[in-house]
Amino acid sequence: MDRYAMLANIREHSHIVARVAETIVRGLQLPERQGAAPPDLDLVLAGALLHDIAKTKCLDGSCQHAEEGMLICAEHDSPEVASIVGQHVILNSFNADDYRRGCFPAREIDYYADKRVRHTEIVPLSQRLDYIIDHDSGGSDHITRRIRQNFNRCVELENYLFGYLPFEPDELAKVVDTTPVSDH
Protein backbone atom coordinates (compact mmCIF):
# COMPACT_ATOMS: atom_id res chain seq x y z
CA MET A 1 0.00 0.00 0.00
CA ASP A 2 2.83 2.39 0.82
CA ARG A 3 4.86 1.48 -2.27
CA TYR A 4 1.93 2.37 -4.54
CA ALA A 5 0.99 5.51 -2.57
CA MET A 6 -2.50 4.30 -1.74
CA LEU A 7 -4.47 7.27 -0.45
CA ALA A 8 -5.67 7.04 3.16
CA ASN A 9 -9.36 6.90 2.21
CA ILE A 10 -8.73 4.08 -0.29
CA ARG A 11 -6.64 2.23 2.29
CA GLU A 12 -9.45 2.57 4.85
CA HIS A 13 -11.98 1.30 2.29
CA SER A 14 -9.73 -1.71 1.62
CA HIS A 15 -9.51 -2.50 5.34
CA ILE A 16 -13.31 -2.49 5.65
CA VAL A 17 -13.63 -4.71 2.55
CA ALA A 18 -11.12 -7.10 4.17
CA ARG A 19 -13.16 -7.19 7.38
CA VAL A 20 -16.36 -7.91 5.46
CA ALA A 21 -14.63 -10.69 3.52
CA GLU A 22 -13.12 -12.12 6.72
CA THR A 23 -16.53 -12.12 8.43
CA ILE A 24 -18.03 -14.01 5.51
CA VAL A 25 -15.26 -16.62 5.36
CA ARG A 26 -15.30 -17.21 9.11
CA GLY A 27 -19.10 -17.43 9.11
CA LEU A 28 -19.48 -19.93 6.27
CA GLN A 29 -21.24 -23.08 7.40
CA LEU A 30 -20.47 -25.48 4.60
CA PRO A 31 -21.77 -29.02 4.13
CA GLU A 32 -18.89 -31.48 4.54
CA ARG A 33 -20.62 -34.12 2.46
CA GLN A 34 -20.34 -32.03 -0.69
CA GLY A 35 -16.61 -31.39 -0.33
CA ALA A 36 -17.06 -27.65 0.13
CA ALA A 37 -14.39 -25.85 2.09
CA PRO A 38 -13.98 -22.18 2.87
CA PRO A 39 -11.42 -20.31 0.79
CA ASP A 40 -7.97 -19.66 2.20
CA LEU A 41 -8.41 -16.73 4.59
CA ASP A 42 -4.91 -15.35 3.96
CA LEU A 43 -5.62 -15.22 0.22
CA VAL A 44 -9.00 -13.57 0.82
CA LEU A 45 -7.40 -10.94 3.07
CA ALA A 46 -4.54 -10.27 0.65
CA GLY A 47 -6.99 -9.86 -2.24
CA ALA A 48 -9.26 -7.58 -0.23
CA LEU A 49 -6.44 -5.39 1.05
CA LEU A 50 -4.90 -5.07 -2.42
CA HIS A 51 -8.03 -4.91 -4.59
CA ASP A 52 -7.62 -1.14 -5.05
CA ILE A 53 -3.80 -1.11 -5.11
CA ALA A 54 -3.83 0.85 -8.39
CA LYS A 55 -6.80 3.10 -7.60
CA THR A 56 -4.65 6.11 -6.67
CA LYS A 57 -2.58 5.77 -9.85
CA CYS A 58 -5.70 5.53 -12.00
CA LEU A 59 -7.69 8.38 -10.43
CA ASP A 60 -6.60 10.66 -13.29
CA GLY A 61 -8.38 8.37 -15.77
CA SER A 62 -5.17 7.14 -17.39
CA CYS A 63 -5.87 3.48 -16.57
CA GLN A 64 -8.45 0.99 -15.32
CA HIS A 65 -7.60 0.27 -11.68
CA ALA A 66 -8.64 -3.40 -11.67
CA GLU A 67 -6.52 -4.24 -14.70
CA GLU A 68 -3.58 -2.14 -13.52
CA GLY A 69 -3.82 -3.67 -10.03
CA MET A 70 -3.82 -7.15 -11.56
CA LEU A 71 -0.59 -6.30 -13.40
CA ILE A 72 1.00 -4.95 -10.21
CA CYS A 73 0.17 -8.13 -8.30
CA ALA A 74 1.42 -10.30 -11.17
CA GLU A 75 4.70 -8.36 -11.21
CA HIS A 76 5.09 -9.29 -7.54
CA ASP A 77 4.65 -13.00 -8.30
CA SER A 78 1.16 -13.18 -6.80
CA PRO A 79 -0.97 -14.70 -9.58
CA GLU A 80 -3.82 -15.73 -7.27
CA VAL A 81 -4.06 -12.24 -5.79
CA ALA A 82 -3.74 -10.79 -9.30
CA SER A 83 -6.80 -12.79 -10.38
CA ILE A 84 -8.81 -11.49 -7.42
CA VAL A 85 -7.75 -7.89 -8.04
CA GLY A 86 -8.45 -8.18 -11.77
CA GLN A 87 -12.01 -9.38 -11.16
CA HIS A 88 -13.08 -7.28 -8.20
CA VAL A 89 -15.05 -4.88 -10.41
CA ILE A 90 -16.56 -7.38 -12.85
CA LEU A 91 -16.55 -11.06 -11.96
CA ASN A 92 -15.69 -13.09 -15.05
CA SER A 93 -15.91 -16.52 -13.45
CA PHE A 94 -19.49 -16.86 -12.21
CA ASN A 95 -20.36 -20.50 -11.43
CA ALA A 96 -23.84 -20.98 -9.96
CA ASP A 97 -23.40 -24.77 -9.72
CA ASP A 98 -20.38 -24.34 -7.44
CA TYR A 99 -22.18 -21.74 -5.33
CA ARG A 100 -25.17 -24.04 -4.85
CA ARG A 101 -22.75 -26.63 -3.41
CA GLY A 102 -21.15 -24.06 -1.11
CA CYS A 103 -17.95 -23.55 -3.11
CA PHE A 104 -16.99 -19.88 -2.95
CA PRO A 105 -13.47 -19.05 -4.14
CA ALA A 106 -11.59 -16.12 -2.62
CA ARG A 107 -12.24 -14.11 -5.79
CA GLU A 108 -16.01 -14.26 -5.29
CA ILE A 109 -15.78 -13.39 -1.60
CA ASP A 110 -13.69 -10.29 -2.31
CA TYR A 111 -15.84 -9.26 -5.28
CA TYR A 112 -18.94 -9.42 -3.10
CA ALA A 113 -17.31 -7.72 -0.09
CA ASP A 114 -16.21 -4.79 -2.25
CA LYS A 115 -19.75 -4.36 -3.56
CA ARG A 116 -21.02 -4.03 0.01
CA VAL A 117 -18.65 -1.20 1.01
CA ARG A 118 -19.26 2.35 -0.17
CA HIS A 119 -16.20 4.31 0.90
CA THR A 120 -15.99 3.00 4.50
CA GLU A 121 -19.65 2.21 5.11
CA ILE A 122 -21.19 -1.26 4.78
CA VAL A 123 -24.32 -0.76 2.72
CA PRO A 124 -26.91 -2.94 0.96
CA LEU A 125 -26.18 -3.84 -2.66
CA SER A 126 -29.00 -1.55 -3.82
CA GLN A 127 -27.33 1.51 -2.26
CA ARG A 128 -23.94 0.59 -3.71
CA LEU A 129 -25.55 0.10 -7.13
CA ASP A 130 -27.14 3.54 -7.01
CA TYR A 131 -23.81 5.08 -6.01
CA ILE A 132 -21.87 3.37 -8.81
CA ILE A 133 -24.44 4.31 -11.45
CA ASP A 134 -24.40 7.88 -10.19
CA HIS A 135 -20.59 8.14 -10.19
CA ASP A 136 -19.46 5.82 -13.00
CA SER A 137 -22.11 5.74 -15.72
CA GLY A 138 -21.60 9.26 -17.01
CA GLY A 139 -25.31 9.25 -17.79
CA SER A 140 -24.81 6.58 -20.46
CA ASP A 141 -27.71 4.14 -20.77
CA HIS A 142 -25.32 1.51 -22.14
CA ILE A 143 -22.94 1.78 -19.17
CA THR A 144 -25.88 1.86 -16.73
CA ARG A 145 -27.21 -1.40 -18.26
CA ARG A 146 -23.77 -3.04 -17.90
CA ILE A 147 -23.49 -1.91 -14.27
CA ARG A 148 -26.98 -3.30 -13.55
CA GLN A 149 -26.10 -6.63 -15.22
CA ASN A 150 -23.00 -6.90 -13.05
CA PHE A 151 -25.04 -6.15 -9.94
CA ASN A 152 -27.71 -8.68 -10.90
CA ARG A 153 -24.93 -11.27 -10.87
CA CYS A 154 -23.79 -9.97 -7.48
CA VAL A 155 -27.33 -10.25 -6.08
CA GLU A 156 -27.46 -13.84 -7.30
CA LEU A 157 -24.10 -14.54 -5.63
CA GLU A 158 -25.41 -12.93 -2.43
CA ASN A 159 -28.41 -15.26 -2.43
CA TYR A 160 -26.19 -18.34 -2.69
CA LEU A 161 -23.63 -17.06 -0.21
CA PHE A 162 -26.08 -16.19 2.53
CA GLY A 163 -27.62 -19.63 2.27
CA TYR A 164 -24.43 -20.76 4.05
CA LEU A 165 -24.14 -17.95 6.60
CA PRO A 166 -25.76 -17.68 10.05
CA PHE A 167 -26.87 -14.09 9.43
CA GLU A 168 -28.76 -12.22 6.72
CA PRO A 169 -27.37 -9.66 4.25
CA ASP A 170 -29.03 -6.81 6.16
CA GLU A 171 -27.23 -7.92 9.36
CA LEU A 172 -23.75 -7.82 7.83
CA ALA A 173 -22.87 -4.33 9.06
CA LYS A 174 -23.76 -5.37 12.63
CA VAL A 175 -21.52 -8.45 12.68
CA VAL A 176 -18.38 -7.03 11.01
CA ASP A 177 -15.50 -5.94 13.23
CA THR A 178 -14.26 -2.78 11.51
CA THR A 179 -10.89 -2.45 13.25
CA PRO A 180 -8.09 -2.31 10.65
CA VAL A 181 -6.55 -5.51 9.36
CA SER A 182 -2.74 -5.49 9.37
CA ASP A 183 -1.34 -4.50 5.97
CA HIS A 184 0.15 -7.40 4.03
Structure description:
The chain is mainly α and 184 residues long. It is built from ten helices and two strands, in the order αααααααββααα. A hairpin with a 2-residue loop joins strand 1 and strand 2. It is globular, with a radius of gyration of 16 Å. The mean pLDDT is 94.
Low-confidence stretches are none
Q: Major sheet, described briefly?
A: 2 strands, antiparallel
User: How would you spell out the order of helices and strands?
Assistant: HHHHHHHEEHHH
> How large is the share of residues in beta strands?
under 5%
Structural class: mainly alpha
The number of distinct helices, counting runs of at least 4 residues, comes to 10
Give the number of DSSP strands: 2
Determine Rg (CA atoms, Å).
16 Å
Average pLDDT confidence is 94
The first-to-last residue Cα distance is 8 Å
Helix content: 55-70%
User: What's the shape?
Assistant: globular
Strand order of the largest sheet: 1-2
Keywords:
single chain; mainly alpha; two-stranded antiparallel ribbon; 2% strand
